[in-house]
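Box 3.1 — From sequence to structure: Tubulin polymerization promoting protein
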Amino acid sequence: IALEEAFRKFAVHGDTRATGKEMHGKNWTKLCKDCNVVDGKNVTTTDVDIVFSKIKGKSVRTITFEQFKEALQELSKKRFKGKSDEEALQEMYKLIEGKGPGLTGVTKTVASPTVSRLTDTSKFTGSHKERFDASGKGKGRAGREDLVDNSGYVSGYKHAGTYDHKVQGNK
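Predicted structure (token representation):
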């Protein structure tokens, strides 16, 4: 059950449309790296990719949970050479159970003075400064396009919209 949970967590990682029933090759490789299945000696990322290609169907790009267990069995023989197949498989399950995708090596944004200078809207000049309000929030479409005023009044006329009041007020 813990193994299936780990499979599901990695299967949906980074994919908003994933259901958690099938896993892509990229997430399979990530699972193997994050759970220390890849040790650099007995099992490398190449081995992981080869096993994935071997287990999945010809025209499919994903593996199911059953195929996932098969793939682990293949790899466990390589990873734990001295042990029996059953022992090796149990060791492999122990590595993965209860784990989730880690965020190690994920790119973080760097707050460099250059980037902050370029994105500081208060320093914008020309037509670009018209695109943001005083707080630095973008105005959206109003900041990019000249929106036409079809009210019938000249732009800048102080008493715009008062005609109806004047006409009804005199009656």
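Summary of the box: Strands lie at 22-24, 62-64.
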